[in-house]
């Protein structure tokens, strides 16, 4: 679990019958608590105004009504707060005491939320990181701000974590830095087939990267095709040749035209496909097609296309890029090369002059020189690559041993990891090995990676957890990989079998890290009493910084990608009907003990003859249970033969456990560590103890009981006028929700329902 720290006590315990008293004998603490409760409607907005970093409720913004509604205040009015602000419809039959009344709940239009529809919903995307929910299942869809941003409820805009951008924080920001130009030595050949037997007329067009040539006549010569292609913005220099026809690109028996890419000023790593449009070509047996990647012409099989197979090399593999850490994008040529070329290995021309070290100097004395040589960039004397490596080939290219790179093996290589971002090599294959995982820069002088701001590790293989106030996860959580987060996955407070291990489809299992924020260890917010805090300090240490003040003893979890936000208390909507969960424990035994496990926490041993008050205390002593009612039904009379002499839990028809703090359909109480002895007259087929659900809990467990706004900067609810903190059962209490309704407040009731008194 996340690290925990001891808290400081700042809460007033309820009076126990002793202590100072005011006039009339009422304890001073009780007077103070009552006074605080009475001032809640005045103080809480004031406290919020001081503490909130964003205004949420006090002022309802002036917003025009929905244009599709003639009279928003009439249609959406009634008993709803602020008439749903013109951004929702007042709906619902809700129970108000014992009377059903209509129009108490706002159903907000798309893009709005909140009890009065005053808050905005932010764009959503797939979660960058989350707790896996099942085997190999994570990255939930439709998560506000993709889980790596916070929603501004006033504007509906995401404030993204540093390094992320987009309206839903759905993409990482591109790195910013120097543009070091690269030069290719890559020839791509594509083949155009065109046939037009007789009476041929018209034109064709060639298309490349969304741009089309002007009309090319059917009998155009290769030079015209070349000119038209070079007019396109994304084609710099091509060589065009026509085969099999003297009539131009479209011959009566079919002609083949090769288009060879010579130079590319736009530094494309992979040439895209040229397409042909022959709809304006007329005649007999008209046909046109393009071939690529080794395919041959259908008319002249000896004419073939060719996929580029050469590699892109810095400084043409004949010089050192950015020597001496200049970072100016220039090449320092090895002896005997450059300094310029025509981009294809020849001497520079007036039209094509690249300072890429790509040419071989004819005025250099090559006697005895078989391989490129240069001073190693990490230090040392000038050397030929063959001295310490595997010499070089006939093209004078060095064969560097492992850990070295460069045209003369003058650099150190950085280690590789699965690339965070790369170009897919097939429809289902990407994330290939790359230096520094394509998430950092490699210092070729040291062979070490310097990771970009979002990543860490020796090869930048892990995404960092977010910082909050200079601390990882704000010191309010633990940084975990997705694989580790899966071990903390729960369903209704109980650990499930979720896993997230590394496969082709879950390649990020050990790469993406996220904050697992500190938990209060409570299934729901409720009032912890001093007995639960205990003398050993265990719960105190867990409770540190999860206290959500104003209403006493309320604790909730931290949340957010950096654990800087706080959950608000949750509770039942007092205007809707609902029942508490009730479970029954059936036990038949004459000796022994058992324990109860609930939401991963286990009680102390419960004796077979423990009475209802003792069972209640042992249940309420665990972290995940707040308050319960425990009653025994049809207790056996003391001394009944064969049944022992106790009136405890195992000597009664059943024990009823009603949950008062944990709302909704809660998981079952589970019997563990049983040492019970069966009653003498009980058959072996009957269990000594079991638990059944008698009533399924149907009360809501809503943020701020759906009658307030959550300020997640401080984890406190700002309640609507007329509502305050409840005890979870509709009465006034210290839960911190907005589940208590002052019934003397009639401001939001429909006019016909307002009392004349």
Automatic annotation (TrEMBL):
PANTHER family for the chain: EGF-LIKE DOMAIN-CONTAINING PROTEIN, TENEURIN AND N-ACETYLGLUCOSAMINE-1-PHOSPHODIESTER ALPHA-N-ACETYLGLUCOSAMINIDASE
EGF-like domain: residues covered: 76-118, 427-461
Domain of life: Eukaryota
Disulfide pairings: 80-90, 108-117, 451-460
UniProt keyword annotation of Disulfide bond present: yes
Protein's UniProt keywords contain Transcription regulation: no
One Pfam family from the record: EGF_2
Keyword vocabulary terms for this entry: Disulfide bond, EGF-like domain, Repeat
Name of protein: EGF-like domain-containing protein
Residue ranges of the region described as Disordered: 1-25
